[in-house]
Specification:
- It is a single chain.
- The protein has a domain of 87 residues.
- It is of the alpha+beta class.
- Helix 1 runs antiparallel to helix 2.
- Helix content is 24%, strand content 28%.
Length: 173
């Protein structure tokens, strides 16, 4: 449970396995094999694509971030997040294209970034007759972000957790 004064959200992540295959060749990765992953904008959607080392020519032009991983063995239970800068870039993409469809995803991602200490929660801005806002601070660049508090419905939580698991776990098992 991620909890802050005044509100709480339960976010039990049901981790899905990544495709475990190369987006270019379609070949399955073997345990211990290194591969590269990228978050790529495809038709206005952010999708994760995994590439074998031989198939990786260069970062796709539509990519907003990439990282290198190693395919876990079949009995591995270790979960590895994408690097913090990739998570931040995804957050910035969502913030840039903020609309009613992804506002709750942006909020949940902001909570995740606070939990992972990528950003710091400066305050919860509560102004009369206006929606609450999280005031976030990113210390590396000394940048501040405002994120509307839009708690998702229980059904939407499932959708968001699936989306984040598919995109942001380096080698989810």
């Amino acid at each position: 449970m991620i909890q802050f004064t005044g509100f709480a959200i339960v976010f039990d992540v049901d981790i899905q396995r990544c495709t475990r295959k190369c987006a270019v060749t379609g070949e399955m990765f073997t345990p211990g094999e290194e591969f590269l992953s990228a978050l790529v904008s495809v038709d206005g959607e952010i999708v994760r694509q995994d590439f074998s080392k031989p198939a990786w020519n260069q970062l796709p032009a539509e990519a907003i971030g990439s990282w290198k991983s190693q395919m876990p063995g079949p009995k591995s239970n270790q979960l590895n997040w994408a690097p913090n800068d990739v998570i931040l870039h995804y957050f910035l993409e969502l913030a840039k294209n903020e609309n009613s469809e992804n506002g709750d995803t942006l909020y949940v991602l902001a909570l995740l970034m606070i939990r992972r200490r990528i950003v710091q929660l400066e305050e919860i801005d509560r102004k009369l007759n206006q929606p609450e806002q999280l005031a976030l601070f990113y210390p590396k660049t000394e940048t501040e972000y405002q994120v509307p508090v839009l708690e998702p419905t229980p059904a939407r939580v499932v959708e968001i957790q699936d989306e984040l698991a598919k995109l942001l776990f380096a080698d989810a098992a």
